[in-house]
Amino acid sequence: MNRVRPAAVVAALSAVALVLSGCSLLTTLGGGASTVTTHTDEPVDSSLEPYYKQDVTWTGCGGGYDCTTLIAPVDWSDPGGERISLAISRHKATGQAMGSLLINPGGPGGSGFDFAQGFTGSSGVYANYDIIGFDPRGVGRSTPIVCFTDDDDRDEMLYGTYDDPYGSEGWAAELAKRQKAWVDACAQNTGPLLAHIDTVSVAHDMDMIRAVLGDEKLNYLGYSFGTYIGTIYAELFPDKVGRMVLDGAVEPPFGTFDELATQMAGFDSAFKAYMQNCLDSGGCPFHGPVGNALAEAHALALSVDGKGLTSSDGRVLDSATVGTGVALALYNEGNWPYLTQMFADLLDGDAEFAFLLADSYNGRQGGTYSDRSLDVYFAVTCAEGTIGTDDVDLIEGLSIMDEKGPYIGGILALDDYALLEEACSQWPYPRPDFPTEFDAAGAPPILVIGTTNDPATPYAQSVRLADELDSGVLITYNGEGHTVYGNGVSCIDDLVDDYFVKDVVPTADPNC
């Protein structure tokens, strides 16, 4: 949905634990340090040499991983200005390395540093590549975005209730005031980096990482929003693309109203599939046929407004938070039983499980937030999207979202599109220069994987991206869930592994 989440979010009760599984550059210093010179020594402008030709100090950080930080300019057009740090984790190839494989789990805001340490690729990929995860600028252990510094303020933004009902002018005014406070906090606490949080800047960071690690070409695996990062890289540096796989494609341009409305429709489609499964499995809290059950669920989600259902920590449940919990559960078919439990509990007047799912989605544990990924999601969308600056106002936009996703999509939009619309309309920085075409002319074959009932990045986006890329190769998985490679689907896993390890490009869509 909203906040296009990493492929790592595959189970409501384990998502946060996975994100936290990585080593910390600040606290885990096992294994000693080794400084090496590995850069490609390719010719670059003298102003870029401090970045492209920097040495790397690797420090063992447990579990067979090394960690390091690299420096990058805040503004690639002013490399002599302020600098940021980029956090990198590495699992060295167990055999003879063919080079590095950069991976990104999505977001915007997902930690590649952590994701690399939970990555499940084939034994061939592990044997032949150094697996490299990095936190993009603004994320995690890299120089971060800092917005609200008080968790109570973040709670108010994500969970706070309103004096006026959703969809009213009074609610819109109250929301605008809250989002202005968030924008002001981001600008004050982050500084110059906030104006350079865009994906073009991230793509330049990636090219520098490639060169510093000694790779003539960038080998890359991107999930979800990570596909968008890969697409931008391929457009800017087509001659530097090696083997690239984009799973769960985000079709450029990112951050448009139409794109978000398509997502709401995608979540509605996934919700229908869940509901049919719920009815077929027995013990479903709703009554068939599926259209009737969807209407009952929709009414139940809306009915919590004004009931005063609370969590154990005193937060008051509203329909928007229910929607966030639904979104978490729809990312993967294995999460569907959690969704059934949430609805059954709501029918009994119990809000606890709804908050548990929403908290997992928002990275909230025990009253605190594990990362700032939501800040990055909102900031990147505002920085390079058109939401909030187009001709669609909030009330009109919500009406369209509800038409696109009448059962659950319109409810999801309350804690996503609505927050974006009111934040981005007050964003203080101009939109950075961006490519206007996305064909990556001259790049070698790029695999684009689409899942037919992916809720967060609907399949049609993968079809269109594969067509737009001059060398795009569409790979279709007929199934449920958000992204697929590494999840045990042998048809997809074997094909991607052969591509990365043997450079075998499929001659036709396998339609797995």
What is this structure, in a nutshell?
The chain is of the alpha/beta class. It has two domains: 15-144 and 198-253 and 439-502, 3-Layer(aba) Sandwich (Rossmann fold), CATH 3.40.50; 151-192 and 255-424, no CATH class. The protein has helices at 15-19, 49-52, 112-115, 123-128, 151-159, 169-190, 199-212, 225-236, 257-281, 290-303, 319-330, 336-347, 352-362, 373-384, 394-404, 409-412, 417-424, 459-468, 490-502; strands at 33-36, 56-60, 66-73, 83-91, 99-104, 129-134, 218-223, 241-247, 364-365, 368-369, 446-453, 472-480.
Could you walk me through the main structural features you see in this protein, from its secondary elements to its overall organization?
With 512 residues, this protein is α/β, with parallel strands linked by helices. The chain has helices spanning 15-19, 49-52, 112-115, 123-128, 151-159, 169-190, 199-212, 225-236, 257-281, 290-303, 319-330, 336-347, 352-362, 373-384, 394-404, 409-412, 417-424, 459-468, 490-502, and strands at 33-36, 56-60, 66-73, 83-91, 99-104, 129-134, 218-223, 241-247, 364-365, 368-369, 446-453, 472-480. It folds into 2 domains: 15-144 and 198-253 and 439-502, Rossmann fold (3-Layer(aba) Sandwich); 151-192 and 255-424, no CATH class. Strand 9 (364-365) and strand 10 (368-369) form a beta hairpin. The protein contains 19 helices and 12 strands. The two termini are 24 Å apart. The chain is globular. Helices cover 41% and strands 14% of the residues. It has a 10-stranded mixed β-sheet, sandwiched between helices. It has a two-stranded antiparallel ribbon with strand order 9-10. The longest helix has 25 residues, at 257-281.
